[in-house]
Amino acid sequence: MISDSRNTPGDNGASGVHAPSYAILLDSDLAALHLSQNLCEIIGARGATFRGQALSKLIERCPESQRLRQVLGSLDGILKSDQTSVDGDADGIQWLVERVALGDEFDSWMLTLVDLRTLLAQREEALQRESETRQIMDSMIGFFGRFGLDGTLLDINKTSLDFTGLSREEVIGKKFWETYWWNHSADAQEIVSQAIAKAATGEVATFEATARTAGDVYFEAFASCAPVFDLGGSITGVVGFGIDISTRNQAQRALEAERAKLRTIVDSEPECVKLVGKDLSLIDMNPAGLAMVAADSLDQVRGRAVSDLVAPRDRDAYAKGVAAVFRGETVNQTFEMVDLKGQRHWMEQRSVPLRGPDGEVAQMLAVTRDVTARVAAEQALIDSELRYRLLADTVPVGIFRTDAQGLNIYSNARCIE
Question: Considering the entire predicted model, what is its pTM?
Fold first, then answer.
């Protein structure tokens, strides 16, 4: 039996479109010897039931295909003539009749028919699909291209060309890394060629590289390359998608610079500056704070509960203050701290809430200063006052003190008596 010829290429005006074709082998008496598989399906022939049947009988078996019956009917007379090769078309079907030799003589006929009407319909459908695909590609906000397995640029979207000021003629057919976008830098070319080569092996590859526009303006691009598979699972090419990340990278660098500046300010602050989580865990602390708690490094205290450094008698009050901050309040506290080496310090702290993008309090920012010397001085003054009172109360004479208006400020015990 003649093999199915439906995949025989016809007019390939649109990619992948082939004309449906059929074949019949007839003997000298115009009886069927072989039919192509697709024609067998049309007329409902199975096995060898069609062999030896007259062409006219085969025509009668064609179902609703009126066009095919008409063409076969018109050929019946031609096959009985003395011509060796005749071709033509009728009602959208192109046909070719040739005498062929199965033995020593040219006593058989090969009839081939191509359905041009179906071919045109398929071509129109394929062109419509290509048009839709092109519209999708050109409407992308990013860069899109198709490559051969060797990296040759086969197609590129309008966005890529408009953004960079190049024409299709300047880039199509070239190795992608050899185009104007990348040939300013050997490093960029190496990055791009390796990404396409990796995609050609079946992997997805991403890269960042500096590209160039027609006006010698450079921009930072991020791109991904992926393999394209056919229905059989074989890799047939590579597609790439990219975006301009110059603005994003500039913003990121500006943010990093701002963070570095703020870090420098915080690190140079002589007071303890720290970030605390809702669970009282330490998130960050500047060098001055680490020195205050006698820590060798941030790793030594990061994640620990800051309340662990608060003297036991002040811990409950400290925890209540932290809870108030996470309710959105600003809190001032004075408490005693015991550092990692067991030394006691009096601390004065002002804490404020730091809110996240959702508006909720995410962290507590606290500035703490060591007021041990001030507290000691205040306590010394109180002790001195107590000693003075004790001494004044023990003398046998009355002692009193008034202000400028004559109002009594102090009277000892003797005076009161």
Answer: 0.53
